[in-house]
Specification:
The chain has helices spanning 90-99, 107-119, 125-146, 159-170, 187-193, 207-220, 255-268, 295-303, and strands at 11-13, 16-18, 39-40, 44-48, 58-62, 66-71, 74-79, 177-181, 199-204, 224-228, 241-247, 269-277, 309-314, 318-323. The chain has 2 domains: 11-121, no CATH class; 130-323, Vaccinia Virus protein VP39 (Rossmann fold, 3-Layer(aba) Sandwich), CATH 3.40.50.150. α3 (125-146) crosses α4 and α3 packs across α6. β1 (11-13) and β2 (16-18) form a beta hairpin. The strands form 3 sheets. It has a 7-stranded mixed β-sheet with strand order 10-9-8-11-12-14-13, with helices on both faces. Strands 3-4-7-6-5 form a 5-stranded mixed β-sheet, covered by helices on one side. A two-stranded antiparallel ribbon has the order 1-2. It is globular. By secondary structure, the protein is of the alpha/beta class. The protein contains 8 helices and 14 strands. The two termini are 34 Å apart.
């Protein structure tokens, strides 16, 4: 997921189909101040706890953590998340309760609701995001030390990604310069940046996501560089970093974009390119997944590349690792 820089102008919301949104709909801003305790962007209004809802609003649904209303053009979301609940597991909770059942649709709506829930968890935007990052990093660290084997059921919603981050870390030399493409919130890059001797650059297409990560990394005292870039057009010279990561990125791109992103990673990397993808039965549209990927896809990408050795293995999804001979 990315903090988007533009809006989708037409979205279906549960049983109500909404056409063109009015002009006052604003781009997603991770630092948007609350309006009387509410997150409001013209498309979504998010409120916390027992905040009042207008008597003229029409309720759509109530779930374990959320209630949804319609108020004119806006979708109103009231959540019951405590500050202790604000971490990266929110993505799973929001998807499972609102998007999986079909009450709300569209990755743009997902990002707006997610942003609103985080921002209504503290008085100021930076305090809210620091709460989100600190909770997430703490729980990723705890999950990484106890992550189950792939055959076991993961109780913690973050456990699978903790295992993925740990595995990526194991594939990267401690003295490497690293570029992560499609970093999203940057939890993997933040983990890698803690190793003495590494230089880590976190890159994403979304300027909002990258700007947020840069501010948070500075507040957390972590030496992380950031870069706004399309994964298929990286503004870096050939062979300029040791390792390039595309971890759970390619399922967000169409087939042609995937191949161009892989070729760009191979151009920029001097030693290794690491690709990881989820093996899903169906793509998850709320997360922006466009298609499902299988081992055959990874092998086809490897076989279609010259000048590199490559290998494929499975660990919480599929991995394709290129090494320069």
């Amino acid at each position: 997921m990315a903090i988007a820089d533009s809006v989708t102008r037409a979205t279906g919301v549960g049983p109500v189909t909404v056409g063109e949104w009015p002009a006052e709909v604003s781009p997603i801003d991770p630092f948007r101040p609350l309006d009387d305790g509410r997150y409001c962007d013209g498309m979504v209004s998010v409120i916390a706890g027992d905040a009042d809802v207008s008597a003229v609003d029409v309720r759509i649904v109530r779930t374990a953590h959320f209630e949804l209303w319609r108020h004119g053009w806006q979708l109103v979301v009231r959540h019951r998340m405590t500050p202790d609940d604000i971490d990266d597991a929110l993505t799973t909770i929001i998807n499972d309760e609102l998007f999986g059942p079909g009450w709300v649709t569209g990755s743009e709506m997902f990002e707006r609701i997610f942003t609103g829930v985080v921002l209504t968890s503290a008085v100021t935007p930076i305090d809210a995001w620091l709460l989100f990052y600190r909770n997430s990093l703490h729980r990723y660290e705890a999950a990484a030390t106890t992550a189950p084997e792939p055959a076991a059921a993961a109780v913690d919603a973050l456990a699978d990604f903790a295992a993925i981050h740990r595995h990526a870390d194991e594939l990267i030399p401690l003295d490497a310069t690293v570029l992560e493409l499609g970093c999203c919130f940057g939890f993997l890059s933040l983990r890698l940046a803690r190793a003495a001797g590494r230089t880590v650059i976190a890159s994403d297409l979304s300027a909002g996501t990258v700007g947020l990560l840069q501010v948070v990394a500075g507040r957390l005292g972590l030496p992380l560089q950031t870069l706004v870039a399309d994964a298929a057009r990286i503004p870096r010279p050939d062979n300029s970093v040791d390792v390039v990561l595309l971890v759970h990125l390619l399922e967000h791109l169409d087939a042609d974009h995937c191949r161009r992103a892989i070729d760009e990673a191979l151009r920029v990397a001097s030693r290794r390119v690491i690709i990881a993808v989820p093996y899903e039965d169906e793509p998850t549209p709320a997360f922006g997944h466009l298609w499902t990927l299988r081992e055959d896809d990874l092998r086809a990408w490897g076989a279609g590349t010259t000048g590199w050795t490559w290998s494929v293995h499975e660990y919480y999804g599929g991995w394709l690792v290129f090494d320069r001979p």
